[in-house]
Design a protein that fits this description.
alpha/beta; DNA polymerase, domain 1; 46% helix; nuclease
């Protein structure tokens, strides 16, 4: 048994960005065809007993309520691509792949919720298909993350090599360094290497904050000024996992396989 969770918009946007040319119906058609081929390949590669594609619903989420500038500078999805996404969603039933999009939360929250529920219900693996670094927080012996485009697992060794921390420290790292693309402030002038160094010394964000007065130079000054922003950023990079998704495991079972548990 295994659950495959596809971060649908991560896959679709990456494919669309790689298709050359201006926005057009032809470009979107190529994106649709390549995206559906990618979903088919993922099902064939991982051969899960259960699978689901998770989409962003769009609109405001709890993170916008928490911090108004959240994702304020993100470019809206082109209208033609919105139509392409709807075409993809309509075609997924033919692949035997259920899909969801839940109002008020991000796809990330729904994915984290599915991971949490699966790990409580089963000791079998769960695979997240995504290149989103936020999911590295969820890595453990049961939860794997697969880079569909490079054909590579993003495991603890990858996190250590890329970011210099453990998966358990990724949320704290993201809180310290922030993320300009999502409008997550982080601590001013604290980048990935500095954040990783602080976490190697202190272990976690709470201890970094507690020991901020011991950090010298401009980093120390910025850290002491940025305590509240660091705490806010930590909430913004976390996942909301208490929203009902209206699913049963039976709904996610691949053809010929059924499980009766629900949540």
């Amino acid at each position: 048994m295994a659950l495959l969770i596809i971060d649908a918009m991560n896959i679709i946007r990456r494919i669309h960005e790689a298709v050359p040319g201006p926005e057009s119906e032809e470009r979107v058609a190529d994106t649709v065809a390549s995206s559906l081929a990618s979903f088919r390949r993922a099902l064939k590669t991982h051969r899960p007993t259960h699978a689901v594609a998770v989409f962003d619903h769009g609109g405001r989420t709890w993170k916008h309520d928490l911090y108004a500038p959240y994702q304020a500078h993100r470019q809206p999805m082109p209208e033609l691509l919105k139509g392409g996404v709807r075409t993809i969603q309509q075609a997924l039933a033919g692949l035997g792949l259920h899909w969801i999009a839940i109002a008020g939360i991000e796809a990330d929250d729904a994915i984290a919720t599915l991971v949490e529920k699966w790990c409580k219900a089963s000791v079998e693996p769960v695979i997240i298909l995504s290149t989103d670094k936020d999911f590295l927080q969820l890595l453990n012996d049961q939860v794997g993350i697969y880079d569909h485009f490079k054909g590579r697992w993003r495991d603890a060794a990858y996190v250590q090599e890329k970011f210099g921390v453990t998966p358990a420290q990724m949320g704290d790292l993201l809180a310290l360094m922030g993320d300009a693309a999502d409008g997550i402030p982080g601590v001013d002038k604290v980048g990935a290497k500095t954040a990783a160094g602080l976490l190697r010394i202190n272990g976690n964000l709470d201890r970094v904050i507690s020991n901020a007065d011991k950090v010298s130079g401009q980093v120390g000054v910025n850290l002491r000024k940025g305590v509240e922003l660091a705490r806010l950023s930590r909430r913004l990079v976390s996942f909301k996992t208490d929203v009902p998704l209206g699913l049963t495991w039976r709904m996610l079972a691949q053809p010929g396989r059924e499980v009766d548990d629900s949540y």
